[in-house]
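Repro case for the chain-ordering regression, as requested:
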Amino acid sequence: MRVATVFNKSAYDFMNSNLKLSFRMLCRDWRAGELNVLILALVIAIGGLTTVAFFADRVELALSRESNQLLGADLLVISNQPLPQHYADIAAQLDLAVSSVTKFPSMISNSDSSLLTEIKAVTDGYPLRGYVHLMSEKPEKLLTESAIRLAGQIPQSGTIWVDEKVKMQLNLKKGDRVDVGATQLTVTEFIEREPDHSVGFINMNPRVMINAADLEATDLIQQGSRISYNLLIAGEVKKVQQFRRWAKTQLTKVQRIEGIRDARPEIKAALERAEKFLSLAALASVVLAAAAIALAVRRFTQRHLDACAVMRSLGASQDYLLYLYLNYFIILGVIASSLGCVIGFAAQEILAQWLTGIVDTALPWPSWLPALQGLLVGLVLLVGFALPPVLNLRSVPALRVLRRDIGLSNVHSITGYAIGLFALSLLFVWKAQDLKLGLYVVGGFIVAVAIFSGIGWILIKILAGLRHQAGGVWRYGLASIRRRAASSVLQAVALGLGLMALLVLTLIQDDLIADWHASLPPDAPNHFLVNVQGDQLQSLDEFFNQHNIEQPVMHPMVKGRLVKINGKKISLKDYADDLHAERHIRREFNLSWSNEVAADNAIIQGKWWNNGTTEAAISIEEGIAKTLRVRLGDELTYDIAGSHFSAKIASIRKVDWDSFRVNFFIVVQPGLLDNYPASYITSFYLPPRQTALIHDLVKTFPNILVVDVAVVINQVQQMIRQVSQAIEFVFIFTLLAGFSVLYAAIASTQDERIYEAAIFRALGAKKEQLSRAWATEFIILGGLAGLFASFGATLLGYVIGKYVLHLDYTFNPGIWLVGIAVGIMGVLVAGLVGTRSAVSSPPLLTLRKIG
Amino acid sequence: MLDDIVEQPILRTESLTKQVNTGEAQLTILQDINLQVKAGEAVAIIGASGSGKSTLLGLLAGLDLPTSGKVHLDNIDIFTLDEDSRAALRGKILGFVFQSFQLLPALTALENVMLPLELTAVAHAQSVAQKLLDRVGLKKRLHHYPKQLSGGEQQRVAIARAFATDPKLLLADEPTGNLDSATGIQIIELMFELNREHGTTLVLVTHDEALSQRCSRQIRLVDGKIAR
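-- result from build under test --
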């Protein structure tokens, strides 16, 4: 025999011949169909994993790009001094599109009157993402789509585009001339909306847009003017990231970088949740793959016992067998994972096509990282979960050649999987790109395996004890479970984990989507009214009544500058290293007061005030508290219109910024600010067909600023719809991976079942009797798996929901019912379908093969 | 003879033929087998390896389907029945002893013997099984699993199982094939004793001439045909 000659050779020959034999063995096994289950499990797992990863990658890129339209660019470099040329130079070198915007407040006037506006001087190419929407000249008519068009270019030199407020307040028509500083410009267009229209309340002035070429002629750029210089950057994601990394090292104190995530907390929150969920779905398919492989390898091991015994008897060393199977699995892993990657790539492409058909967003090409990850995960899975039990093969006694009933003592040592688990954990953390999420999943996985195994073992022992009370085929089902106790536990645990992953995803998916839609219902406020004066409240009430709009809640607010923390005067120097903090200190805070905690706020530290609160108390938002480096109990002093106001931080609030409702960093106990000049702010929903109402409102209350966030709301709502769909798709693949576990579980005992079937049939059992015996087994397995899954899902759902996705998780007792029912039905149906061929194959064939 | 008229053969084949398709060619394993076995007879089917002995035994039991021909078992043309009815028939009138014992590893010795009784819903399965195991000398090993038993002991369990349903016909396929000669002799003695006690008809497949001589009649297979 050839094998015999290769065992005693030099090291090189050893490896070489070993590799060749591995390969031949692999080919042989493949042709014989021995690897079907293993390959299928791996291909589905890696296919699912890479589909998710590729797709998530693309969706993320697309989402970022989509939301970047709100910024007008992918990235902004912002400064209050002219930006050095090297930012634009390097961006150009990186093939990035560049444009610049200079913003400053100034008066503009015509013969009638003058108005404080925000002037925006733009260069060619503006905006790099999104469009400037222009309006036709009939404001009284309803705004129909046909009245709005996209600007193809920026204002020509010598012209000015103005927004609606300017138009109304200066009573402008196209062709009118307005004075802007030292120059005169002609009005040529009316702006309906701009991509980078801020939602915040800093730039609420009426806006005009001019060509940057006219900037000098205005003579408005003076020393000490409040000017914001913006460099807009857009282009390939990687290059933008590269630019961002470089630019970060160049920033001076007055410069900062903003991406969409920095600029828009509401979008940031939505994006991050989506990303986390998608990576969670991907991780779930890795868990499923591990389970499927652990199951599939069982059959493989048993089928290779003889070959190993023969090789051992022919003089193969244990090392020889070790390398033989190591090579074998590496080759198999690379082939199967590559196949999985190809399938994953193809599947995500189909998915992407489907999705673009619906949402009209061209998805950018995915990166290759998912393929690399898929390949690595595949190898780690196979080597980590298939090799340990196979390694036991090398210690198979050569005596098995003579006595076939000599097997292996422990084919499924849990410790054997330790390496696999460890490697998988590392991969998890890497894949999740989020240590916390990765650790939660890995931790949950390991704890679940340990607990499930223990409980499973005990339950199976108890059940097995019952078999003497059971009759006939029931006894047989119980006996089979007991005999295969180790692998029954493994099967139940693997199935349980699979089901758990699916349940958790279902739970979170539903919660996530429901929560999102709830956070931005169709009637979410889309207009803010700012600067409402106390004496206008009543007439505003009447105005709303007249137009059948529900009375919105008016939030009082007083402007104040933070001057002291714990009695110590603060200076900008204290925050010199933190531009964000510096900006807040330079600016005035809006201080509001309220008796109640707002619905979208949650107290995370301290207590809200009540009637018994005597000390002047304030409540601060968690993010700003961090930025200002203040804690519960610290005293903040504000300068309000020249007099000082002090209060201690009594509570820290978490604010749900994606709700688009009016929220404040600082809320003060009612009564404390009664003597300061207050204005009011509110938000309300205005149906699109009633937008003309805004004109009336502005005319009636000229001092009130109306901020229209309908565009942003629409964008975010569309994004939520899009992501919800993506999540539902990705879920299908996880489901498929779940089926591969089921398939592997059933296939792993197929050989034994065929053998059992043959004996049963020879002894006169009817198909129905045999099926009943197996059904007993499947019901027990499925029930156990369902029990594990429900338990795990409840716990994991709670932990992930609460700590990772920050969703309020409601305990769902139905999950136990669903979990156990799905477990039993799933395993029973799959088991009976999967063993159908075993029931009906002619008994003689099997008995002779084995005999 | 009067006996021939009164006693119908318990087993009868008509032109039994089995061919398999190897892909390239048709391989004839059994060709035109006609044989009869009367109740109470002990018949040995002998032949070299590959002569088709075990295939014939399998067909006689309806464990496999022939290419053509018939098998009458207890006057029933078994290939007109569906697989489930054949199984039921086996359970009622056949007992098996295999070369490699074919015990179910999940079950104890006692449970293995009880299994055919339970499949046909016989009352007192446990006491019947216990008595049989006692009879084959395994009284103390009722609750052992197959892997805890020696080869000889396993075959004793298999013999006990074969007689559990009190079959009319016992089919034995090289029952000593996996045993050493001393054990083999004991097993054969046991099998023939039980066969006598139960008045069972025996069809024994073997390549062992000496063993075949213990049967009242020998049928020799050469290349899938009955040698004359």
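Ordering looks correct now. The domain at 38-65+82-226 of chain B is CATH 3.40.50.300 (Rossmann fold).
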